[in-house]
Write the structure tokens for this entry.
Amino acid sequence: MTPQEFDFLRSFLHGQSGLDLAEDKRYLIEARLNPIARRAGHDTLSALVAALRTSRDPALGEAVVEAMTTNESSFFRDKTPFEHFRDTIVPHMLSARAPSRQIRVWCAAASTGQEPYSLAISAREDTRLNGWRLDLLATDIAASVMERGKSGIYSQFEVQRGLPIQLLVKYFNQTGDMWELDATVRRMVRWQKLNLLNSLTGIGRFDIVFCRNVLIYFDRPTKTDVLARIADTLEPDGFLILGAAETVVGLTDRFEAVDGCRGLYRPAPSRARSEPGTVVPLSRTA
């Protein structure tokens, strides 16, 4: 692969997915795209690049993007966001959404589904939410990854990562070496293919947005753009949850940190839209 071909792939991936690959990631491109090249009938990465330059087949570009997208996930990953959901977000929503008894959640870059399903299980385990509806939208750029998530079928290794044994027994059925999530939990999650670089106007508005471990792969302008458009999807008293290594500091003034809650943000009051009956003041609930 020539330097020019490497630059083309970096530019192509950035334009298609926002992925910002450093100069030292040549090995990663070669490792992940050589199998894609062979499956597409190309002997070399150079041939694959030539096909990408001239092909009008969107499937080839999607395969390249999916191969380069990190799809690391686990149940109740990092724990802290789910503690924020239980201890800070739910108490606020119980008051602010009492008339509708509905909470709308968007899990961006949901990968194989462990995050939205963890939230669905959390809601079912929380007796305070009895009689409430948790409307969960899970989106991802990779169609093949989403299909795995829709199936709700996971390996022994996957269910062992972060899922307490009592919840495994309660919500999963074992078939051979695989575990299938109960259909009642799967039905709580809606799936939609979505590129975060595209318009978000069609997905509606949300009380909570989980966008974890996504911004770290974007350059600064892309981070700022994505955060601004996420802010437009959030209710004025909504919540944004980012990954442990992510922040809004220096990127946007649309959000402010929730005191004492690492990784948890809310729309900044000065930027929040004023809506009748909306409960805006927020504080941590112990």
The domain at 3-68 is CATH 1.10.155 (Chemotaxis Receptor Methyltransferase Cher; domain 1).
